[in-house]
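Box 3.1 A note on notation
Throughout this textbook, protein chains are presented in two layers. The first layer is the amino acid sequence; the second is a token string describing backbone geometry. Keep the layers aligned when reading.
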Amino acid sequence: MTTTADALLRLAIPESRQDYTVRDTMLYALGVGAGSDPVSPAHLMFVYEEGLKALPSFPVVMAHPGFWQRDLDTGLDYRRMVHGEQRTTIFRPLPTAGVVHGRSSVVGVADKGEGRGALAEYQRELRDAAGNLLAVSSQTLFCRGDGGIGSAGTMPAPLRDTPERAPDLVAEQQTLPQQALLYRLSGDYNPLHADPAAARQGGFDRPILQGLATYGAACFMLITALGCAPEAVRRLDCRFKSPAYPGDRFELRIWREPGGASFELREPQRSVVLLGNGFMELSE
């Protein structure tokens, strides 16, 4: 079936719940590169139970409703859909263990025209057992095969442009050859990131790193380079520009800005930008 923008806004995505422990919190952090310096306090705070804190990017894998684009009767061509942008807003620091409830919805659709695809804005609210809002994870999905479905709802404001001046800080992180296999244990079991045959079918010569693993790595690198407390992070936005591969070396360029920091994540050996238009908002 085909779909319309109004139908997507009415789509009933099942609510979800996740019980998690400190093991899940530490496993996620390991999957995005924390612990690569096992004696650094900046690393240990995310991977060791003594004084453990959750990474602010952790909500992107919490209480996920699954592959709703495929499993529900959406009418979308999910095989041609790509994750274009990610925004995460933090209202309360995520506890290192507990229960979270997820409520998901499509809140906006922007039609680019027949043959040009459409953008769909998907949000997931995370609340604790008492109903307190913890975070909102927002994904802009580029539905390449679904142009002509109309526009409806509300799309987010454009992301910030990357500053043209030289960066104030540059940080580096080496990813592991098994990074995608480690990250998938936090819930992303797409075979594109593990199965060489599935990767070739997707147009890649080998499995690629999950986009949200790259996003989480940028979050960890920013906190470490800026020396800020994870509780200070209020928002983390970016655009996915190129796929990363396990074993890539990440170079994070950081610009200090009022209210936070802009960033761009690159892979210098391949001379590609992985994440662009990035901004981390920090509390004062």
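The chain has a mean pLDDT of 95. The two ends are 49 Å apart (CA to CA).
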